[in-house]
Design goal:
alpha/beta, 17 helices, globular
């Protein structure tokens, strides 16, 4: 990779002058905005954190430019550029950084940890890469209802060492889901260089073990990124399954506003600064005769004015009202209640009651589907779903890999995508492996999205002792989960309670 002229081809060759200007303006706005936010943070004018993506603009703008208009983006804390390409405006970003009441998170976060689902961006949370399982779930919903929507799960190279990322890409490959995984490899996971993060030659080759095609792309070449993302999205949309794209780039500053990045050598920094994505894009646009340097200078002034006006406006907007802080923890129930007409007098044990409730619900609503380990042809470890696979088929009774974190996260994303998942975790002990997705996504999305999106997800599991299964299978964590705002926990004590509470929960 060098500073040689970047050249339009494939999908990028079809982009109009107006579209190229939009992409360039997005990149330039991201850089100017993050530069301003970084200075404000260091000057004590912002209370939240700043995670500058300066230097990675081509990767972010290229992701946004290559996606379809209805596609869904699941990102991380350094993805403001993609947010803007998806339609999130400066005022919305400014409101969130100032922690204002009318911001995307209603002032419940004060940095880039937000998403606007109606504009196609999922909520960002601190643990990485937490949005990947949710993106997998929305892709599952897309496949269930044939909506044609593709999801894109983005992270940095450091997050590819987590089990969550590997579970996500594995499940997406197994289920052949319409999803694209992008990795912005900016050379350092916080301060840790690539060679101390992973022993493989590159990130792309990690996908081969999961049967997922992968490519390494010059992440500072806006055309290369746009083409690669577009092709991967269209492949997924046509039923080709997931793709992994490694976008090789470099962040000009540290991980966050407080990080001086003095671990980056001058040789490395000089190498990458010569490959600045904005300069390469400008040179290409000038060489094509589409713009002159004067156009970029004038646009820079316009952008800086827009940023200043947006920030000045946002800082004077109303702060959150503490008395309203609990109102979005739960969505208002609008589903019918279940009444027992007592016509069926057949005696049932616990398992029979649960089976009966699930069968009734799935018969009444074709949007309901179940997923979990061994619930398919085997019928579940407790025989709860015995016969369901033959009755409802593989589309509605899904066996999954052993991946509790992604099973639950996918349930979250699928519920947001419009279908009605029932997730089964074999015992409540194993739910601890998914506690990040349960606590930080399932329980918080309605609250952190300003009450705009709820998660109609049911997680069913087995709790307590009595079966001689030992200390790692027989614990009772329902009391702990009941202390998490945003979760509703029900624990039936009789078969009739099991049937009624399960139907009500669904």
């Amino acid at each position: 990779m060098n500073k040689a002229t970047i050249t339009r081809k494939d999908f990028a060759a079809s982009l109009s002058k107006e579209r190229l200007l939009e992409i360039y303006k997005s990149m330039k706005t991201q850089r100017a905005l993050e530069d301003r936010l970084l200075k404000m943070y260091k000057g004590g004018q912002l209370s939240g954190a700043v995670y500058p993506g300066i230097g990675q603009e081509a990767s972010m703008a290229g992701i946004g430019a290559g996606m379809g208009p209805k596609d869904i983006f699941g990102g991380t804390h350094r993805d403001l550029g993609v947010q803007m390409m998806r339609g999130v405006n400066l005022r919305e970003i400014a409101l969130n950084f100032f922690g204002k009441k009318e911001g995307p998170s209603k002032g419940r976060d004060g940095n880039s940890h937000f998403g606007i689902v109606d504009k196609g961006t999922l909520m960002v949370v601190s643990p990485l890469p937490d949005s990947a399982p949710v993106a997998v779930g929305w892709a599952l919903a897309s496949k269930q209802d044939s909506s044609g929507i593709v999801t894109l799960a983005n992270c940095g190279e450091g997050a590819t060492t987590t089990g969550t990322w590997h579970e996500s890409i594995n499940m997406a490959g197994v289920l052949k889901l319409p999803i694209v995984f992008t990795v912005q490899n900016n050379q350092f996971s916080y301060s840790t260089p690539n060679e101390l993060e992973y022993a493989s030659t590159n990130i792309a080759e990690k996908a081969s073990g999961y049967g997922v095609p992968s490519y390494t792309i010059d992440g500072n070449d806006i055309y290369a990124v746009t083409d690669a993302v577009y092709e991967a999205c269209e492949n997924a949309r046509s039923g080709g399954g997931p793709t992994l794209l490694e976008l090789v780039t470099f962040r000009h500053y540290g991980h966050a506003g407080h990080d001086p990045a003095d671990y980056v050598s001058e040789d490395i920094r000089n190498y990458w600064m010569k490959r600045d994505p904005l300069l390469r894009f400008e040179e290409s646009l000038i060489e094509e005769g589409l713009f002159q340097q004067e156009d970029f200078t004038n646009l820079q002034k316009e952008i800086e004015k827009e940023i200043k006006e947006s920030l000045d406006w946002a800082k004077d907007q109303p702060d959150p009202n503490p008395s309203e802080e609990t109102e979005d923890i739960f969505a208002i129930r609008n589903s019918k209640t279940i009444n027992n007409n007592e016509q069926n007098k057949e005696p049932m044990n616990f398992i029979g009651a649960i089976t009966n409730a699930l069968d009734e619900a799935m018969t009444e609503n074709n949007d309901i589907f179940m997923m979990g380990e061994d619930i398919g042809a085997y019928g579940g470890p407790y025989a709860v779903t015995r016969g369901f696979f033959d009755q409802y088929g593989a589309k509605r009774i899904k066996d999954t890999p052993i991946s509790e974190s992604v099973i639950v996260g996918a349930g979250v994303g699928a519920a947001m995508g419009g279908v009605r998942p029932i997730v089964e975790i074999m015992t409540i002990n194993f739910s601890l492996l998914a506690s990040d997705q349960i606590v930080n996504h399932a329980a918080k999305i309605h609250y952190m999205t300003n009450g705009q999106y709820s998660v109609p997800l049911l997680i069913r599991t087995v709790t307590g002792g009595g079966a001689g299964l030992g200390s790692t299978h027989s614990q009772s964590f329902e009391g702990w989960y009941s202390s998490i705002p945003g979760l509703k926990v029900v624990v039936p004590s009789t078969p009739i309670d099991a049937l009624g509470l399960l139907r009500s929960s669904i």
